[in-house]
Amino acid sequence: MHLTYPTILLLGAALIILNLIASRFAARLGAPTLLATLAIGLSFGNGGMYDFYYNNPSLTLHISELALCVIIFTGGFESNWTAFKPILWRGISLATLGVLLTMIAIGALAHFLLGWPWLQSLLLGAVVSGTDAAAVFSILENSKLKLNKGVREILELESGANDPMAFFLTLTLSALMVHDSTETSALFLAGDFIWSMLVGLGTGTLAGKFILVLVRRIPLKRGQFPIVLLSWVVILYSVNHLLHGSAFLAVYVAGIILGNSPWVQRDINVHFFESLSWLMETALFLILGLQVKIYSLPEVMWEGLLMAFLLIFVARPAGVFASLAFFKNLSWRTQSFFAWVGLRGATPIVFALIPVVDKVPGAMKILNIAFIIVVVSILVQGTTVAAAAKAMGVGNVERKKRPAA
Questions:
Q1: Domains along the chain?
Q2: Residue 397 or residue 120, greater confidence
Q3: Residue range 44-57: average pLDDT?
Q4: What is d(CA 8, CA 351) in angstroms, rounded to the nearest whole number?
Q5: 127-138: per-residue pLDDT in tens?
Q6: How many CB atoms lie within 10 A of CB 4?
Q7: Where are the alpha helices (DSSP H) in 44-117?
Q8: Do 319 and 99 form a contact (C-beta atoms < 8 A)?
Q9: Which tens digit of pLDDT belongs to each residue from 286-315?
Q10: Using an 8 Å Cβ cutoff, are 162 and 95 in contact?
Q11: Is the predicted pLDDT of residue 239 greater than 70, yes or no?
């Protein structure tokens, strides 16, 4: 099917509306709405007789990164820094050491069970090592789950802060495979990681402080505030790409600073970014579904299901328990809940596009396996979050109060 400009606009708007309707039905059936969005995207773009063919990994990656930046900024903007302070190091440990250990565990399992080369195995581990902010925020909100003090904050901090680590690991391993740079020293990689994090932290802090001064001293109109903030998200994304910094960390830090400081019209921006975040999340899952070809999934189905099972029941728990071993006041029940709620959403598919764009050998297999892992994670973990919280004694579902007779 040949797509003209009006046809593209029509299809894009129709897919968003279709997603709204499908999401409502999915919610009533108890299925995660994110899965409905992925299914709609997967149904199109395969090049059938009455379908169009979509295969633009580079464009998809750039759009997805920008969408993730908006979602992560919104997560930081809506966060409560006061509540984060007591659990800061636990969340950081999960977001860094937990991601690294999960990658190593999945890499080792893929190497020994699937017979993959070490670099390819670790690349798969890096792609699926982080939890997804959009998935975690969406599942927690839709399930009406009220978690114990500190538990929700750790999950939110981890999911918002672990993308920089997973992104860096994916980018590095992808580059190593392309250039066959197996002799690159660990010291060089450590320096590269520190530089990336420092640039992201520094630019995010400076931008947050500067925007705060800007919105407090310059009399902007009511509708201009959100546009200024959105522009700065794009600026931070661009600057960090130029400086090889972590754009995800930068927007998250800027969001935390702006969301936890008093200034005029702050609440208006909260509502704006809630809506924008939903739109970005929808667009993200739709375009990722379009990029993945449904006819190529059966070829790696058993490998994808095996890796999904091992990630959920072996690698994620190992990463969680090991990274939280330093904190003695966390019960095994709470840690078990963290291990179970390691939701994989859009980010593994986005990160899997990096080796595809870089033309890494075996990249399409990694992309398809990552997609299967995401679907299994949303189906298995996403539908059992409330039950797991109740079983582990860390929360309960909020019930609506019946009106008085």
A1: 60-396 (1.20.1530.20)
A2: 120
A3: 81
A4: 25
A5: 999 887 767 766
A6: 8
A7: 57-77, 81-84, 88-93, 99-114
A8: yes
A9: 888 889 988 899 999 999 999 999 999 999
A10: yes
A11: yes
CA distance 173 to 171: 6
Q: Are 337 and 324 in contact (CB under 8 A)?
A: no
Contact 400, 155 (CB under 8 A): no
CB 154 within 8 A of CB 90: yes
pLDDT band at 403 (very low <50, low <70, confident <90, very high): very low
360 burial type by CB count under 10 A (0-12 exposed, 13-18 middle, 19+ buried): buried
Q: What are φ and ψ of residue 59, in 5° steps?
A: -60, -45
The DSSP bridge pattern shows strands 145-147 and 395-397 to be antiparallel
Average pLDDT over residues 275-283: 84
For the chain, the distance separating the N- and C-terminal CA atoms, rounded to the nearest angstrom, is 58
Q: In whole angstroms, what is the distance from residue 252 CA to residue 205 CA? A: 10
For residues 397 and 146, give the distance between their C-alpha atoms in angstroms, rounded to a whole number: 6
Please check whether residue 45 is in contact with residue 290, taking contact to mean a CB–CB distance below 8 angstroms. Answer: yes
DSSP 24-58: HHHHHTT--HHHHHHHHHHHSSB--TTS-B---HH
Query: What is the DSSP secondary structure assignment for residue 382, as one 8-state letter?
Result: T
What's the predicted TM-score (pTM) here? Answer: 0.89
Distance CA 134, CA 159 (A): 8
